[in-house]
Structures are given as C-alpha cells and as structure tokens.
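This follows on from our talk about sequence and fold. Please put the record directly below this note.
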Amino acid sequence: MEKRNVRTSLTTLKKAKKMLKSAVKQLPISNNIIKRIQRKRLKASAAMQKARQDKSKSEQVTHNLLVGRRIVDLNVLSDNLECCKCKKCLSLKNTVIENHFGLHSILDIRCADCSTISRVATGKMHYTNNDAKHRDVNTKAVLGAVHAGIGCTALNKLFSCLNIPIMSPGLYKRYEREIGPALEEAAKDSCRRAAKEERELIIKNVDKLCEQL
C-alpha cells in the first residue's frame, strides 16, 4: 500500500511538473498577447484623439496670400483692424496668414510699427445650444441656401464664380443641423398662426357660410 501511495504521489508530482513547465512556456506568449493588445489600444486611442483634433480643425484652411473676394462684416473688420499691443491701425497689406473657416476668415496681420502679429476676424461668431462655436456668415449662407431651395454644390458653384472661398460639404452639414430645429419650429408656428386665422375667419363669417350651404 505504501509503495502504491509513493508511486501515486510521484506520478502526481511528475504531472504537476509538466503542467508547471507548460504554464511557464505559455507565459511569454500570454505576455506578448497582452503587449499586443496594449499596443493596439494605444494606437486606437491615438487615432481617436487625432480624429477629434482633425474634426475640430476640419473647417480651417490656411493660406499665405489674400486672393479673391471675401464676405466681411465691415463694422467688425474696422473695429478689429487695431494692433493688440500698440493700438495702431493695421493694414491688410501686412497680412501674414489667412485662416478660412468656410466664408469666415481670421487674418494674422503684422503691425508696421511694433511688428506684433494680431488676429483679425472678418465677422461675428456665436455659440450653439451644444456650446459649439459657429460663424455668423456661414449660418446665414446656409440659411439662405435652404430658403432658395439649393444645396451645398449649387452654393459652392455661386461662390466659385464670385471667387469666394467655398464651404466643404461636412461644414455645410454642420450648419444645416444648426438651423434645422429653428426652421422646423418656425414652420410649426406658421401653421399654428394660419390655423388660428382660418378659425377666426370661419367664426366671423359663419352666417354667410350657412346661407351659402
């Protein structure tokens, strides 16, 4: 009985050693898999961060020269044409870089007196309900396109003929989503007013209508 017990324990020990060896052999593979997963996660995280940055900068196009025509708010432009340091008047001739945000531009202009570069916006900006920064000129251009019954392609054809920077389809969609709820609410309000007026007219002329019937 004792011999059998010894043999059994030896056999168990051998099996345990084999299992331990196989587990040790598999450890580097598991570590490699974990490292690969971690690398993939890091890459995915970096890609997502880059996508967010690209999305925030997708509407921005940078040019070094002022070419063509622009739609500007003259009051805003005249107020902003002032050096941020010495308060002297700035000249558009000293523009270093122009950043386009659809139809809106931000000009980096160098001061002729102190050489300080000031950022000059060509129009007003506003915040949407989700705290996104939008440019007034883009909102009004898309609103006008919707009222005229045209889309992004037709609007850009008009801008191209006028030599005005065009709007990308993605940017157009973003502003279209902004004005959508307002247009829907305006349409509902118009329908309510029309129904109210019709009801008042019917009540006012009910006797005449009864006679005609």
